[in-house]
Amino acid sequence: MPSPATLTVDLNAxxxxxxxxxxxxxxxxxxxxxxxSYGLGAVACATRLxxxxxxxxxxxxxxxxxxxxxxxxxxxxxxxxxxxxxxHAGRLASATxxxxxxxxxxxxxxxxxAGGAAGLQIDTxxxxxxxxxxxxxxxxxxxxxxxxxxxxxxxxSEPMNARQRGAFAAAARRYPGxxxxxxxxxGVFLGPDYAFDALRPGICLYGGGPEGRPD
Length: 215
Known about the structure:
Layout: H1 11-25, H2 34-39, H3 42-51, E1 56-59, H4 62-72, E2 77-80, H5 89-94, E3 98-101, H6 104-112, E4 118-123, E5 131-132, E6 143-147, H7 159-172, E7 179-181
Parallel strand pairs: 1-2, 2-3, 3-4, 4-5, 4-6, 6-7
């Protein structure tokens, strides 16, 4: 019978990647640790990143956030990209998780449940999650983050990048007290105009990179 496969994760390399991204972007790095840190182990990766100075993390689902909160304790901020799904407001609040609100229904549920701090996603062209620019809500109490997601950041020559950046910059002006996060893994390398207040790298933090980039 063949022996089971073993995956070895170099946490020192992860830490080095984290600090490299800090240097490239010149703003804080908020790691994305969704999908169990892309299969590498969210608890181990986030624990090391917390020790390296990360103070804000992103997960996709409520259950991921609950597990991360139990492992990391009360210190870090944890955002849930799925937002406030039906019936999840109590779970999010109990674990001191911050939903990234994507729809009017989510916003109403979170506020109706007397939810606390939250983020807001603006869809500037990805057409996946978030409020359309023209439907973005008025500023509300507890809003701490506004973000959007680049659709074509793996191709620096794609004009869509600049269009999305302009749309995000304009939309974010409505929320002057909120942290602005725009650059995903590919966006980190598009230049300082894309950095805003915080980077939000996912796969590049773990050694993957935008297609076509040898580094």
